[in-house]
């Protein structure tokens, strides 16, 4: 219940609609509970005594109560819907806002499919809990208390049937709820798996077709789909037991009341109209208990969703703003002072260990190394995408943890290894680097990134639509657009994480030439091809998370065996390719 209480705070913007809906429900219950009393008067006074005036008077009151109950119900639906959908919107907004503050390490703890489920399915469950659960949540206790009270007022002896039957039904329904509770958690986890499979299949549909793995992916999808089906069947097979339990107790109560009530009528202790009205209260009380069981089932499922939403909202971002942040970065110098890093504090293995490195402002630095040598990890520590585990990193002479995060990341432009473009036009994507950039600045950045070559061939130029994820451009074109976007940022430090791997060598040479003209900007270039970094002021070789060697191309080629091996193997590969051509 603590999870529900925590989530309920997001109802605050819709509190007025929520309270009005509850008040309207209370009125509806009052009008409905008055109807059986009026009906008993019609039977015992109007019908039994042939009093037409009493029948018309009491009948008119019944119609008025029914109309007022209907109007109250319609108005309730309007205000309840506003409260529910406003609540859902507030939850989604809060989750999305929270995710934007997550560090990479926070995102590592939640899969993408799970976050999508928590912001869609789980929020919808909470939304439906308000929209569909508010009515029985208010009606059930009101109808139960008032129904039992009025039945005791009509005939206390006959009302004792409630004292026996209602607790029996409550115990049966409580057992069902206890059984179903854990099953909802399994069901939501199955939804996570299904969303993950769908996301992977749709994102990698081209690779699936290229490797003719359609049948394999269908089998994987069938497996997670069967798991969701199994979880859902187990859940609802137990959940629907509340209906036969309710019917068994309800019909048993009716039989007992008819039996004892008939004897009371024969003995002159009760009138027919009273028994008829009493039976109406029986149905209302039993329905109230049934609705309460549905509420508990709904709350049980809501608890699972509330817990998952709360996990996102209570996740503490691993990167925090300093208390007195610095908003000025003097230059692009970078110093790694005995830096070590591991992705999880509980991990025994360090991704980086004892890195001691000093880069002057304006230098061009190449970074090479084998797969898994932590090249990307090294550069991601500079803009605080992750925080160091030991040691410190200084930019412009200050520890990066002293800077305002926005200021730091604006000063460190990074083209990530995985190129990401968003739905929209080329112009929209480029302006991520600088929202105020005019066409002249956009084209200048595109020329430096050699993106103008293909943009000029597009009919709409900068206004060309890229499609979702940039599907309308090739891998090399996507890389060049990402480079142009980063150049627009006007950063003091530029990081290129293997960002020209899909670009031909001639185009890459043009990009390097354009970057070389930015003498006041520090440039870090991660690459697999030595031609990409051989003109750098210094080249860093990483091996197993440690710095193996640092030097210029000539120095490393003369003294370092690893560099010599990479150089000669790439030269041989180029020669073999030339002979093949």
What does this structure look like?
This protein is of the alpha/beta class. It has two domains: 2-193 and 232-313, Up-down Bundle (ABC transporter transmembrane region fold); 334-555, 3-Layer(aba) Sandwich (Rossmann fold). It is 63% helix and 10% strand. The strands form two sheets. A six-stranded mixed beta sheet has the order 6-7-8-3-9-10. Strands 2-1-4-5 form a four-stranded antiparallel beta sheet, with no helix packed on it. A hairpin with a 2-residue loop joins strand 9 (538-543) and strand 10. Helix 5 crosses helix 7 (160-203) and helix 7 runs antiparallel to helix 10 (242-266). The chain is elongated, with a radius of gyration of 35 Å. The mean pLDDT is 82.
Spell out the blueprint of helices and strands.
Layout: H1 2-8, H2 15-49, H3 52-100, H4 104-108, H5 112-119, H6 121-154, H7 160-203, H8 205-210, H9 214-239, H10 242-266, H11 272-313, E1 334-341, E2 352-359, E3 364-369, H12 375-380, E4 390-395, E5 398-399, H13 405-411, E6 412-415, H14 426-430, H15 439-448, H16 452-455, H17 475-487, E7 493-497, H18 505-516, E8 522-526, E9 538-543, E10 546-551, H19 553-559, H20 561-580
Parallel strand pairs: 3-8, 3-9, 6-7, 7-8
Antiparallel strand pairs: 1-2, 1-4, 4-5, 9-10
Helix pairs in contact: 1-11, 2-3, 2-6, 2-11, 3-6, 5-6, 5-7, 6-11, 7-9, 7-10, 7-11, 10-11, 15-17, 19-20
